[in-house]
Amino acid sequence: MRFDLPARGTLTPNDAHDPLPYYYHPWVGWLYRHRLQMGLDLLPTGGRRVLEIGVGSGVLVPTLTKHYAEYTGTDLTLAASLARLVAPGCHAEFRSADLLRDGDLPADHYDAIVCFSVLEHIADAAGAARSLARALQPGGTLVTGYPMVSPLMTRAFTAIGFPNIDDHHVSPPTRIAAALGAALTPVRRVAFPPGAPVSAALYQCSAWTKPGT
Q1: 31-209, superfamily in CATH?
Q2: Has residue 161 got a pLDDT over 70?
Q3: Which of 47, 102, 105, 117 suits a disulfide with 111, CB 3.0-4.6 Å?
Q4: What value does the mean pLDDT take over residues 14-21?
Q5: Lowest mean pLDDT, pick from 35-49, 71-85, 148-162
Q6: 86 close to 107: Cβ distance less than 8 angstroms
Q7: How far is residue 15's CA from residue 120's CA, in Å, rounded to a whole number?
Q8: Which residues are CB-contacts of 119 (< 8 A; sequence separation ≥ 6)?
Q9: Is 18 helix (H, G, I), strand (E, B) or coil?
Q10: pLDDT score of 166 more than 90
C-alpha cells in the first residue's frame, strides 16, 4: 500500500500541535512520510474494515479509504471537512473517541487498525493496548508506529521548531512494546534506522495480531 500525501493546502490541522507542516518540510518531511510508509508496508491485503486511531488532519485518509471498503477515523478532536478526503466507493465515518474510554469502540470488529504517533502520548500504555486488542477482530492486524522518547529526540524536536515535546511524549517505546506484547501476538517490526533495537530507533513500526477463536 503506497502512501500518497495530499497536495499542500488540501488538509487543515486539527489543533495547534498537529504535525501537518512537517510532512512538507524540505528536510524532515521525508522522514515524516517514510515512517507512515514503513507502517503501511506491514498491513496485509484483503481486509474490509479499517480503524485509524489519531486521524489528525487526515494525511492517511485518502490512502486508507482507497484500499478498504469501510473506514473509521477517530481522534480526540476532528479537523473540519475530513469527509472530502474519502476515496470514492468507501463508506467512511469520523468520530471523536478516547482510546481509554470503555465503549467508544466496538469489540472484535476491525480487520485492521492503524495507530501512528499516538501511543507515546498516552501514559497508560497497558490500557491503550487492551483497548486496541478489544477492538481488533480475531485474526486481524494492528499496526502501530512510535518515535524514540529520549533527550536526543527532545533536542531534535526543538531544532525543528517543537520545543515542548516532553509535555506530549510520555511513554517510551520499551513501555509501549511491553504493553502491546501483553495484549497481542507480535508479527513483525521495522525501524529507522534499519535494524535499530527498540530503545535506539528514531522511529519504529510494529504489526500485531489477535489470535483467532
Answers
A1: Vaccinia Virus protein VP39 (3.40.50.150)
A2: no
A3: 47
A4: 86
A5: 148-162
A6: no
A7: 18
A8: 125, 128, 129, 144, 146, 171, 176
A9: coil
A10: no
